[in-house]
Amino acid sequence: PIICEALRNAQKNFLKEDINASMVANWEQKDLQFSPDKNFLLSADKTGTIYKWNLSGEKLIDKCFLNPASPIEAVSIPAWPNTIITAHQDNSVVLWNVSDYKKPIIEATLRAHNGVVRKILTHPAKINYFITAGKDSSIVINEITNINSVNPGQKIKINFFVKDMLLDNATDNVIVLSEKGDIYWFNLNEKKMYALNETESGKSKANAIALNEKNKTFYIGYNDGKIKVFSMGDIYKSNSLPVYNYAENKSAIEKFSFNN
To answer: What is the model's pTM?
Structure first.
C-alpha cells in the first residue's frame, strides 16, 4: 500500500490509502522508513522521538526519545540488527543501538557534510555502506567496517540542494530530487550523474518521489497534487507513462513511499 506522510500545516497523520486508516503521532513528522523486512514502519519527529508502527494493526508498537544534540532531519534502518541511523541539522549522522527502545545508545557519530544532512539511504541487504545527502550540495557514500567504525567515504559534489533521494536496489542507481524539482540519477559504480528529462508546464513542480519495486514503477508527486508514473525500465531512458491523479482537492504531494 501507499503510505502518505502529511508534513504541511502541522498535520501529524499517516494516511494509509488502501484502508483509509490513520496512524497518529504527537508531533509533525520529519521522515519515515520501512524496516528491511517490511514488518514495521519507523517515523521520526524533530524533537528526537522515534515511533515504531505495526503495519498490520496500524498501531504504535513502541517509541523512544533519542535526546539528540540537534533536531532530526531523516531516519533510516540499516541491515545491521537493532540499529537506526539519524541525520541532523548540525551536520551529524548518528548510529543508535535500539535493542532496548527505552534506552537507545549512541554507537557512532559521523560528520561527512558541512551543513544540514537532508537524507539517508541504506541498502536492505548490503551492510558495508550507507549514503547521505547534505545541504552543502554533496552526496557521500559512507563506509561501515562494523557498527562502531564508520568513516566518510567518497564525497560527490553536485550543483543543487537535495530534497529527497531513493536507492534502486535492483540497479544500485540513486535517484535524486532537487529542491527546485529537478530529478537526477547516478550509478554507484560509475559515479556519474544524469538528468531525468521530466518537465512540467505551468506551476507544477516535482515535490516527492517513490519507488514501487514490486511493480517496477517510479512515482513523482507534484505540488499541484498530480502523480506521474514511470516504468523503471524507462526511467533511465527518460520516457514517461500516463499521469494518474490520486490527490484530493489538488493538495500538494509532500512525501510518499511503498511497502515493497
So the answer is: 0.76
